[in-house]
Design brief:
The complex is a heterodimer. By secondary structure, chain A is mainly α. Among the domains of chain A are: 138-227, Serum Albumin, Chain A, Domain 1 (Orthogonal Bundle), CATH 1.10.246; 238-390, VPS9 domain (Glutathione S-transferase Yfyf (Class Pi), Chain A, domain 2, Up-down Bundle), CATH 1.20.1050. Chain A has 20 helices and no strands. Chain A is elongated, with a radius of gyration of 47 Å. Chain B is of the alpha/beta class. Chain B has a 6-stranded mixed β-sheet with strand order 2-3-1-4-5-6, sandwiched between helices. Chain B has 5 helices and 6 strands. In chain B, 31% of the residues lie in helices and 20% in strands. Classes of the chains: A mainly alpha, B alpha/beta. The interface between A and B is large, with 52 and 54 residues. The complex binds guanosine-5'-triphosphate, magnesium ion and zinc ion. Magnesium ion (MG) sits between chains A (315-317) and B (26-27, 68). Chain A: Pfam families: DUF5601, VPS9, zf-A20.
């Protein structure tokens, strides 16, 4: 019982998730509680300014970093040992460029001619400071600093930074492109960079991957607002659809899905709660890889729950239904947007063959299953499924024996019914008495009438002429002439 | 694709999916291969749905990622999500179960339709320790495999027979495919970006969705 209520505590009130403008779409903390559309309208200008500021910051950081390089190598005997591999790098790039014109050139030219600065910042944008202005640069600032710190340990670090920065900036001016094209740009950039890193690191995949992870972190922290759930897609509509769908499926039980976890075991329900929390948390991350990590953590908690229940290694046939169950319980915010964002902008090698990729794929499967789910997939008849979906019936709970609380209510109701019946009988009796009383009254009245009639008949009323005045004993003003009465007393005067 | 690009001495990364009906022994096969365990009640393995194996084949490093898939009928339509971008597929049937062999044929058709010849197919008749209960003839199975450009193997997860050979063979074939692709790329025909992204589901074959779910897996 206790862990049940705990689980319920995880659910976030739907109204808290909605856009604060009340447009009906989902809001996001990163967008000040607004949806992407309202956010864009509201902060278009502020964001413009942010881009400029980011640009200035990146330049400043790069200058600092170049200065640091210069300092480092001034003391060294060899003039510029770290730069040497770079020039080769560059050379190779130029050759490549001439052969395949499309890829890198496309990305690096727009950034070369940097967009108009300062003067394009509108005055009102400056006078309306938004909390987000101070918030976002803080995070990107930190990420940039960490990225530079990480790259300092690598020989081609500066070149990598320069290219990533230029590419990220160029993306800000590709806002009109569709989501797939933006994804294509980013993926091509990843591909090119990782190919060259493979050459540099002589094929050590681990080292390439570790650099690519940092590249993704730096770039996507900055691009998140631009490319998460973009206006050009119907991601947001799909979010609402799956959210609604999951809400409509609230009646689906563990038994219908054949989920091999027993939530009566405290350790299991604890892991279920954690898995739900993890999958909800995914939405709060900006970097695709951080989102993947949430899914992986969720999956590990699922495996713990299965293992504790079944005492054997969980297979895909155990895992997938449990993940579906967790997704139904969690109803994670902006599920489709998150899946699309990861698919479009995650480092592809993580997504395709890594462990994270396996769990992510299963999440995609779970969502697809939920979208298409019908009676057959839950071993229900079409009629049962329709009844449950329309809310006209809810599935029989496994425990057929009524709970104590339920039977108490039943016996109370029975008592009340008995009482009512008793009252009815008594009322009937009272009514009977009243009716008898009424008829008695009628009989009595009739009897009295009859007797009066009888008496009147036996002693008919004779009308006598009015009696002589003498006979009358009345004492009143009409009888003034009555001589038999003593004369009235006269007032006497006493002299004296 | 998953093999990545670059210099000659790099590491190959391959994704291999396991497909087949419930209870044919998919999970048993990988657990035997990666952990040398069979029906082991000793829970040192938390999960048997995603397992990896590092190999060294003729001086080349290979990272094998083996993806178990949910085999129950109700999950059949999810197949394409699982097998996209995979370099190899192991299609398992139970030699004592004729139906499970029919399922393999359906999978082959679907995989060839969706992924063409890019994917290396292995058809595996498992549970050969139950030879006396065999219901799928060796000739039929091997003949079928050859007709669809797949290799056929006989294994027993119980007796640890034929499994090492199966995976080694598959890896060699995937390496050949990857090298051929690289050579093609070197010749200027770079078309590897086409199948990169986009999760999509293909509608279930109506004839495949006859039997309802439910299987021994919950036991
Ligand atoms: N005799 C024998 N039994 C086997 C062999 N391989 C697997 N089994 C048994 O077959 C049953 C199913 O094996 P699993 O590995 O769970 O099958 P699966 O294909 O993963 O099944 P799902 O996960 O339900 O799709 C288990 O009871 C295994 O012990 C084998 O080589 N010989
Ligand atoms: Mg299995
Ligand atoms: Zn809104």
């Amino acid at each position: 019982m206790s862990h049940r209520s705990e689980r319920r505590g995880i659910h976030v009130d739907q109204s808290e998730l909605l856009c604060t403008k009340g447009c009906g779409f989902y809001g996001n903390a990163a967008w000040q509680g607004l949806c992407s559309k309202c956010w864009r309208e509201e902060y278009q200008q502020t964001r413009h300014k942010q881009i400029q500021e980011d640009h200035a910051l990146a330049e400043r950081l790069q200058k600092e970093e170049e200065a640091a390089y210069a300092n480092n190598h001034q003391g060294a005997t060899q003039p510029q040992p770290a730069i040497a591999p770079f020039s080769k790098f560059e050379e190779r790039k130029t050759k490549e460029k001439s052969r395949k014109v499309n890829t890198m050139t496309k990305f690096f030219t727009p950034s070369a001619k940097t967009p108009p600065k300062k003067e394009s910042v509108p005055g009102e944008a400056l006078s309306t400071p938004s909390p987000s202005v101070s918030r976002k640069p803080l995070e990107t600032d930190r990420t940039t600093q960490e990225f530079i710190d990480f790259l300092k340990t690598l020989k081609p670090g500066r070149e990598i930074f320069k290219q990533c920065r230029a590419f990220t900036e160029s993306m800000a001016y590709k806002r009109d492109l569709g989501a797939d094209e933006l994804s294509e740009c980013v993926q091509d950039f990843y591909q090119n960079l990782s190919d060259r890193l493979h050459t540099h690191f002589k094929g050590s995949s681990e080292r390439v991957e570790s650099v690519m992870d940092e590249v993704e972190r730096y770039m996507m922290t900055r691009l998140y607002e631009e490319v998460f759930c973009p206006e050009t897609t119907d991601d947001e509509k799909k979010d609402l659809a799956i959210q609604k769908r999951i809400r409509a499926l609230h009646w689906v039980t563990i038994e219908m899905l054949c989920v091999p976890v027993d939530e009566e075991i405290p350790e299991v329900s604890d892991n279920v709660v954690k898995a739900i929390t993890d999958v909800i948390e995914m939405d709060s991350k900006r970097v695709p890889r951080d989102k993947l990590t949430c899914i992986t953590r969720c999956s590990k908690h699922i495996f713990n729950a299965i293992n504790t229940t079944k005492k054997e290694a969980a297979s895909a046939d155990d895992f997938l239904p449990t993940l579906i169950y967790i997704v139904l319980k969690a109803n994670p915010p902006r599920l489709q947007s998150n899946i699309q964002y990861i698919t479009r902008f995650c480092n592809p090698s993580r997504l395709m063959s890594g462990e994270d990729g396996y769990y992510f794929t299963n999440l995609c499967c779970a969502v697809a299953f939920i979208e298409k789910l019908d009676g057959q997939s839950l071993n229900l008849s079409v009629e049962e499924f329709d009844l449950y979906m329309s809310g006209q019936a809810s599935p029989q709970r496994p425990q057929a024996v009524p709970s104590p609380a339920c039977s108490a209510a039943f016996s109370q109701m029975n008592d009340s019914l008995d009482l009512l019946t008793g009252l009815g009988v008594r009322q009937e009796r009272v009514m009977e008495g009243a009716r008898r009383l009424e008829s008695d009254l009628i009989d009595w009245r009739d009897g009295v009438e009859h007797k009066v009639q009888d008496v009147l008949e036996r002693f008919p009323l004779e009308m006598h002429p009015p009696a002589s005045p003498t006979a009358s004993s009345a004492i009143d003003a009409d009888n003034v002439e009555n001589d038999h009465l003593p004369s009235p007393l006269q007032p006497q005067l006493f002299a004296g | 694709m998953a093999a990545g690009g670059g210099a000659g001495n790099k590491t190959y990364s391959f994704k291999v999916v396991l497909l087949g009906e419930g209870c044919v022994g998919k999970t048993s096969l990988v657990l035997r291969y990666c952990e040398n365990k069979f029906n082991d009640k000793h829970i040192t393995t938390l999960q048997a749905s995603f397992l990896t194996k590092k190999l060294n084949i003729t001086g080349k490093r290979v990272n094998l990622a083996i993806w178990d898939t949910a085999g129950q009928e109700r999950f059949h339509a999810l197949g394409p999500i699982y097998y996209r971008d995979s370099n190899g597929a192991i299609l398992v049937y139970d030699i004592t179960d004729e139906d499970s062999f029919q399922k393999v044929k359906n999978w082959v058709k679907e995989l060839r339709k969706m992924l063409g010849n890019e994917i290396c197919l292995c058809i595996v008749g498992n549970k050969v320790d139950l030879e006396k209960e065999r219901h799928v003839s060796v000739e039929e199975a091997e003949g079928y495999a050859e007709s669809v450009g797949a290799k056929h193997y006989h294994t027993s997860a119980k007796l640890n027979k034929g499994i090492e050979e199966l995976f080694l063979d598959l890896c060699k074939r995937m390496m050949e495919t990857a090298q051929a692709e690289e050579r093609a790329k070197g010749n200027g025909a770079s078309q590897s970006t086409t199948s990169r992204r986009g999760v999509q589901i293909v509608d279930d074959d109506p004839q495949a969705a006859t039997a309802a779910g439910g299987c021994c897996s919950s036991a």
